[in-house]
Write a structure and sequence with these properties.
- By secondary structure, the chain is α+β, with helices and mostly antiparallel strands.
- It has two domains: 87 residues, no CATH class; 237 residues, Bira Bifunctional Protein, Domain 2 (BirA Bifunctional Protein, domain 2, 2-Layer Sandwich).
- The protein is built from eleven helices and ten strands.
- It has a seven-stranded mixed β-sheet, with helices on both faces. Strands 2-4-3 form a three-stranded antiparallel β-sheet.
- The N and C termini lie far apart (71 Å).
Amino acid sequence: MGLKEKIEEIKAEMSQSKVKSHEELESFRIKYLGSKNILKELYQDLKNAPNELKKELGQSINGLKQESERAFEVFKNSIGADSSNKDKQAFDLSRPAEEMALGSRHPLAVVRNEIIEIFNRIGFTVSEGPEIEDDWHNFSALNFPPEHPARDMQDTFFIEKGENEMALRTHTSSVQVRVMENSQPPIRTISPGRVYRNEAISARAHCFFHQVQGLYIDKDVSFADLKQTLNYFAIEMFGEKAKIRMRPSYFPFTEPSAEVDVSCTLCNGDGCNVCKYTGWLEILGCGMVDPAVLDAAKIDSKVYSGFAFGMGVERIAQLKYRVGDLRLYSENDIRFLNQFKSAF
């Protein structure tokens, strides 16, 4: 049988094909459009055809291929329409709707949004900035001396060293520097975001985590203003019985500085294994903005003063939901995340 006769035979066979089910549709596809379809044999035979007939036969084979593709689409749409009609006929309009499975917010997102909402109520706006920062915004403008350990590779993920030093930000205080550079007091803002530290991953530490840094600059801002602001936050976040205490500490960009503890809400300050029987849990660091930081941002430190604070979102979530392992926040275990559906 010649090649022309084979083409006509396959064409006639295709025209008589009847497809009424998905199984028959798949058989049609494999036979005429699959990786080993019968049309490929025609292309092989075309190589041996006389040169004067190759153009005509090649066009016939290409036309046959296009016709098989059109036939497949017609059959496919026909079966889809039939299935749709059957579904419509079988659908019971009086049947109760199926319950939709809702997702859940990540616990860190829940706590982050709650922190933002609390500070929004007392006039703090939200500021954001880049996660890749230069040395000025991440260190120098915040009064970090050149020999400070935080500049060492053991704490910071450097992207570029040398004259134009770049690194993954180690805190969101870099955002506060940008705010001070581009606006004038009064400034009242918080800076939530992800930060990075070159630390070993464990149940109590991770190489990335989330912070919320706060900044308030105006005339006659005092340490008493800072304490009342943080006392308000503790009560709103942990309940009316929450109390705070402040311990002297050191940060390069604040002076004086303090660590802030909140009374343990699990034992009401009586002492338990969570608070290590002290009745207190550390939640954040804070202090009055160092005049050198204000002057670096071209804000007159003789006229304005301010306070700053910073907290870890993971730490607050750990206290709020009693999560003992920081790694759970980033492992995407659906069993862990499903526990927070009520907080959606």
